[in-house]
Amino acid sequence: MTETSLQGVRSLLFAPGDDARKLRSALASAADGVIADLEDAVAPDRKDAARGIVRTEFAAAGTHMRRMVRINGLDTDWGREDLALTRTLDLDAIVVPKATADSISAVGADGVPVIALVETAVGLRQAYEIGLHPRVSALMLGGADLGAELRWKPRSDGLELLFARSSLVVDSAAAGILPPFDVVHLAPRAIDELIDESTFARSIGFGGKACIHPCQAEPVNTAFSPSQSEIDWARAVVAAFDDASARGSGTAVVDGRLVDAPVVRHARSMLSHPGSTNQLPRRSPAAH
Predict the structure, then answer these.
(1) Which domains does the chain have, with CATH numbers?
(2) Which positions in this protein are listed as binding Mg(2+) (predicted)?
(3) Cα–Cα distance, 50 to 282 (Å, whole number)
């Protein structure tokens, strides 16, 4: 896995690359990272203008916000021009749409980390292979394109997404990359639904979620951070296990439940998550 500033990132906010106002709003939001979208959000006759706007707004932004670009498909001239642009910007990652094992190779072996957007049936079947690419740090599930291809009928409980979600979690872990990012929630003002969806996604192994409106960032950050009760549990587990280890035992009991090494690893991971203190490390600008 590539060394990456994406560790602990919970919310990634998409903003259209050709709209300077919305891009500035995203960069001032509570999101952990902003993705300037040069693909679906930008009309064909606005692609060149969008690249210029992204360059200007990213250069003017403060240094704290993680910044990324979703490029067009690398089988297009737009995508190749986007990729050339990314090499001149101070980015934390690029987002590659409709990723497959073949298409991801076009980004090359050197450069900033890649978030591979899995939004086709082929991409879903090849997610593990995609995750093995040396630049891929995380996968992101794209629900709209995948749902259209597979003829999903949207459900209020999101059950149509369960197989795809579970597959990405397993493939990410097997490839040794970060936990994946969940699909966007398409109703920006339905915050209760967003929280429920985010809480479920975290419960099955997602590390964060894509957003489409600044108001979604804080609820997503909260949902993907350890709660106070989880932090208290993790501290109790670590303390009990350390005490047991000092007495020569490899197990302990916390709240009537057996605690062994795998449980302790999970507890330590929870305590080390930046969200446990609500202090995600600031990005360190660097020339790429």
Answers:
(1) 11-224 (3.20.20.60), 228-272 (no CATH)
(2) 119, 145
(3) 26
